[in-house]
Amino acid sequence: MSKKGALIGIVVVAAGLSVTPYFIGTQTESAIKDYVALFDESQPLYQARVVSYERDWLSANAVIEVGIDTRALGLEDGATGEVVTTEFELSLQHGPLLTDQGLAIGLASWQVSNDGQGLQDYVQWDSSRLLYLQQGTVNLAGNASYRDSIPQLSNTERTGEVRFELAEYGGQGQYDGKTLRYEGAFSEFNLGVESLQVELQNAQLSGLAEASLQTLLRGQFYEGHGSMTLDAMTVTTAEAGEVMAADKVSMDYVMSISEANATGNEVVQMAMDYGFDTLRVNGIETNDLRMNTAMNAIDKGFMDAYLQLLQSDAGTDPEQLQAALEELFEQQGLALLQAEPELTITNFSGSLPEGQFVANASLSVAGVSALPQAMDDDAFWREHMRASTHLNVEKPLLQWATQMYVQMSLVNAGQARELTVEQLQQIAAQQAAMMIQSFMQQGVLREEDGSYVLDLQVAAGVLDMNGQQVPLTQAMGGM
Known about the structure:
Elements: H1 3-42, E1 46-55, E2 59-69, E3 83-94, E4 97-98, E5 104-105, E6 108-114, E7 123-125, E8 132-138, E9 144-150, E10 153-155, E11 162-166, E12 169-175, E13 179-193, E14 196-210, H2 213-218, E15 223-237, E16 241-257, E17 267-281, E18 284-299, H3 300-311, H4 318-338, E19 342-352, E20 355-365, H5 378-384, E21 385-394, H6 395-412, H7 421-442, E22 446-448, E23 451-459, E24 462-465, E25 468-471, H8 472-477
Antiparallel strand pairs: 1-2, 2-3, 3-6, 4-5, 6-8, 7-10, 8-9, 9-12, 10-11, 11-13, 12-13, 13-14, 14-15, 15-16, 16-17, 17-18, 18-19, 19-20, 20-21, 21-23, 22-23, 23-24, 24-25
Helix pairs in contact: 3-4, 6-7
């Protein structure tokens, strides 16, 4: 290459490096102001506004004020609630040469920080540290990556009956304009409300959202999946002590949108799975407990309207919410029912010392062409309701569970006051055996390979229980 050509190339590169930060800065300022305005519009519990935005050629600094409705969050009584404000400071560097977090090439880098000023009446932490810090970069391809952190914090006396303690939290995420990925972790979180105390140990969070930032800020339904795992979870009350304790807890979710169904509308699916290696409730311990649930074929238009309703002012008032839900169903209930929505438990299983159990169930609506004149029209729901249940319980487990039920019933009814423990257990065992035998004779249960089994289906107004069919009206009349 000639010296002249090299010189021209250097001039072109220099011009590009000098002009590019201006365009990046302009686009970034516009995007940030739009996101803040959208957040303020979409989140009823919070307020947000850009207090100042100062931009030069290579960098920018902004102050964003966020207000929090402490009454709506349950941190204060209605009479004393207020909107407290705090400021987030945003510093940006415009690419393509980035130096504020180490020398790099990219479109931009940023830091968002909050020193907690304005929140001291509600939260306490090491004041030498920032209450929130986020640092990130956007590479030349437009992909962002960031890390955020919160120090150890706890409540103050101002929060009244609400108490909390959070160990230091750290997270990291990536966003490419279409997919947001995030992971976070904390070692301990305690939450108390009146006499109830919940303790979480060693939490790992992860999530993936196939959505734009606008969709996420608006709280609209999006496709994605995520999980949370805990080493341990404990629930206690001042009166009863330990109510629940669990080890190795997992919660997973998947949300998806399907192709248009017969109504011409899109439908959404949501699956949530729960797992406990050990779960102890009121002293009764279950191992390898699993429950997988799903909502299928929910009309997306109805779902979006429902989510928007929850984020509106009506979503914070029970009476307004009930009235708004009734209006929503009048407007979009037909589309919801015509999509044939289904609620299902695909698996519910576990093991106790007395034996194992496994079950599944589903409830759906089918064949709807018009809404009923009244939503409490029993004939309408009998015609269009579909349900199924399968339950398999090992015999010793059902016998023990039924005996425990009878025993508690006798105690609660005051019929066990004059009985010894042995007499109470003997009577409960006798009555439990009679109950199970009665269920067998009625066809509710059947025996199969050392287990008691229940199979139930409801369709088109007919109840089928273990192969015995009766009109649903007749079955309900006998209940």
